[in-house]
Structures are given as C-alpha cells and as structure tokens.
Design goal:
Chain lengths: 114, 109
C-alpha cells in the first residue's frame, strides 16, 4: 500500500513570496490533516478535512494560509505571503474514517523562509 | 487547555528499559497514540491504546494508561541505539489529533 506522498521535500523562498505544498493521502482515507512542525516542537494542527469538507481550521492563519482538498482526495496548502516565522516542516497525514486507528504521515516539506 | 505534556529528554544505556511519560487533557479521548520521529523523517505510528484498556504490549513496547490521572506511558524494553529518536504522545481532543512536544530519547552504547 502506498503511503502519504508529499512534494516538494524542500523549499527555500524569500519572505513575502508565495509557496504551495501538495499532498496525496493513502487511497481511501477520508480524513486528511496538515500540521506545522517548528524545529524542537511537536506538530501543530493547521487544518483537518473529512472528505472534502473542513472539520477544523481554528489554528490556520487565514490571512496568509489557505488549503483545499479537491474531490476529497489530494490537497494543497498555500502560504501567501510567507513570513520568516513560517519556516518549519509541513506534514500531511491521513487516516481512514475518523482517527481511531491513528494517522499516517508523509515525509513532510521543509520550508525555509529567508 | 489542550496541551499534551511530555518531558523533553531521556537518556538511557543500551540494553536498559526506557520509560517515556505523557499527561493528556481530554478524559473522553477514546484512543491515545505513540509516534516515533527519526531525524529528517515524518512521524511513524508506533502503537495506540483504546481508552477501555489499562495496558497494551507489542513486542518490546508496553503502553500503560491511567485514565484517572490522564497519564500515558511508553516502555521500551532492551533499548537499542536504533530506538534513538523523538517520541510523541497524541490524543484526540474535540475530534482533533493533538500532539505533545516530544521526548528525545538518547541511547548510549
């Protein structure tokens, strides 16, 4: 079974530029998550989708971050414009029908904003 | 609040047992999880425990759950150098999967 795929693996941009990350969850998984992990911290949930609907986006900085999940499968996370403090690893995860059996993570995208 | 708390660092000698502790917040959490993160990698689900269980054993891993104190622990028997990583405790809080800040496990040869 293929795992959660994310791209790109690494991205370096200047502040005020835009960036987008892509995630392809495990086939059949209804729930998709985007987490931000700043160095030395635990993952912080940015947004959680159930199929193509948003379950929670309370910690998503909506003035600069946006996310969508087209047709309940792939998802993109965008930052526009980026700030220095957005430097982090962005992790995508998916789980089957709710989170009872745990979420499965991709390798993440390491973003550096200079 | 929704903080899941863990001690930040644990150092053990190879062959010893490691015990990583976690305090969670939501007494109604139905599942609790332990994840492992190696350098430069994503999070790997190690094990989970259902809230109606007190203990779960899976090879070298033992999870203990004290619901009264909202305390979760992960014991790794015969710790190996390959177990060196960051370990995260996670709970489902108001439908969201919330992580602690992670415990760095250092295994000395």
């Amino acid at each position: 079974e293929a795992g959660v795929a994310q791209s790109p693996r690494y991205k370096i941009i200047e502040k005020r530029q835009s960036v987008a990350f892509w995630c392809n969850p495990i086939s059949g998984h209804a729930t998709l998550y985007w987490y931000q992990q700043i160095l030395g911290q635990g993952p912080k949930l940015l947004i959680q989708f159930q199929n193509n609907g948003v379950v929670d986006d309370s910690q998503l900085p909506k003035d600069r971050f946006s996310a969508e999940r087209l047709k309940g499968v792939d998802s993109t996370l965008k930052i526009q414009p980026a700030k220095l403090e957005d430097s982090a690893v962005y992790l995508c995860a998916s789980s089957p029908e709710g989170t009872g059996l745990g979420a499965f993570f991709g390798q993440g995208t390491r973003l550096t904003v200079v | 609040g929704e903080d899941v708390e863990q001690s930040l660092f644990l150092s053990v000698r190879e062959g010893d047992s490691s015990v990583i502790n976690c305090t969670y917040t939501d007494s109604s959490s139905t599942y609790l999880y332990w994840y492992k993160q190696e350098p430069g990698a994503g999070l790997q689900l190690l094990t989970y425990i259902f809230s109606n269980m007190d203990m779960k054993q899976d090879q070298r891993l033992t999870v203990l759950l004290n619901k009264k104190d909202k305390h979760l622990s992960l014991r790794i028997a015969d710790t190996q150098t390959g177990d060196s990583a960051i370990y995260f405790c996670a709970e489902i809080h108001t439908g969201k999967l919330i992580f602690g800040q992670g415990t760095t496990l250092q295994v000395k040869p």
